[in-house]
């Protein structure tokens, strides 16, 4: 039978590492666009910086899922040691693994989306400030993808 702790640990690792990579990707793509827009018009910095903050939130989502999953590990270890509850341990471990993939993958995709749309938003806002309310919508929708992943991951971890 497969080792439940290995799969649960992989789920924890995937959640935090992929979410951090997604956040770094989002910040790395958005940052130069925000800096360039701020160079042109310093007053757009506060508006444009929202994309960087939303990208950083991705790492926090991954951390929340990973921490909740780590708190489930002692129960998995206890259940894995008992032959009668070994199936329960494997089931819980696979749920945590799936939660890690869901959160990490969602954050990775959202990070790319926030990065590209956030950079474009900063440029558009520097050109015409009145467009801000329209060009911020794609950034928010990209963040929503990560929130959907967070909800699914939390449901999986809390049922583990």
Average pLDDT over all residues: 93
Taking Cα atoms only, what radius of gyration do you get, to the nearest Å? 19 Å
- Reading the helices and strands in chain order gives HHHHHH
Shape: rod-shaped
Distance between the termini: 18 Å
Strand count: 0
Output the number of helix runs.
Answer: 6
CATH architecture: Up-down Bundle
Specify the biggest β-sheet. none
Q: CATH homologous superfamily - what is it?
A: lithium bound rotor ring of v- atpase
Helix percentage: over 70%
Number of domains: 1
Low-confidence stretches: none
Which class best fits the helix and strand makeup?
Answer: mainly alpha
- Hey, roughly how much beta strand do the residues contain? under 5%
Here the CATH topology equals: Four Helix Bundle (Hemerythrin (Met), subunit A)
At the first level of CATH, the class is: Mainly Alpha
Question: What's this entry about, in short?
Answer:
With 160 residues, the chain is mostly helical. 88% of the residues lie in helices and 0% in strands.
Write the layout of secondary structure elements.
Layout: H1 4-40, H2 45-48, H3 50-81, H4 86-127, H5 132-135, H6 137-158
Features:
0% strand; Four Helix Bundle (Hemerythrin (Met), subunit A); 160 residues; rod-shaped
Polypeptide structure, described:
This protein is mainly alpha-helical. It has a single domain, classed as Four Helix Bundle (Hemerythrin (Met), subunit A) (Up-down Bundle), CATH 1.20.120.610. Helices cover 88% and strands 0% of the residues. The chain contains six helices and no strands. The longest helix is centred in the middle third of the chain and has 42 residues, at 86-127. The protein starts with a helix and ends with a helix. The model has no long low-confidence stretch (mean pLDDT 93).
């Amino acid at each position: 039978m497969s080792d439940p702790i290995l799969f649960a640990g992989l789920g924890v690792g995937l959640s935090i590492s992929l979410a951090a990579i997604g956040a770094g990707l989002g910040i790395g793509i958005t940052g130069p666009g925000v800096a360039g827009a701020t160079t042109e018009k310093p007053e757009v910095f506060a508006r444009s910086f929202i994309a960087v903050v939303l990208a950083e939130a991705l790492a926090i989502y991954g951390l929340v899922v990973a921490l909740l999953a780590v708190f489930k590990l002692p129960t998995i270890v206890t259940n894995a040691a008992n032959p009668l509850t070994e199936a329960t341990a494997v089931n819980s471990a696979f749920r945590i693994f799936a939660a890690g993939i869901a959160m990490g993958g969602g954050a990775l995709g959202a990070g790319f989306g926030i990065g590209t749309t956030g950079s474009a938003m900063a440029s558009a806002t520097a050109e015409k400030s009145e467009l801000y309310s329209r060009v911020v919508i794609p950034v928010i929708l990209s963040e929503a993808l990560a929130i959907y992943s967070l909800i699914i991951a939390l449901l999986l971890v809390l049922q583990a």
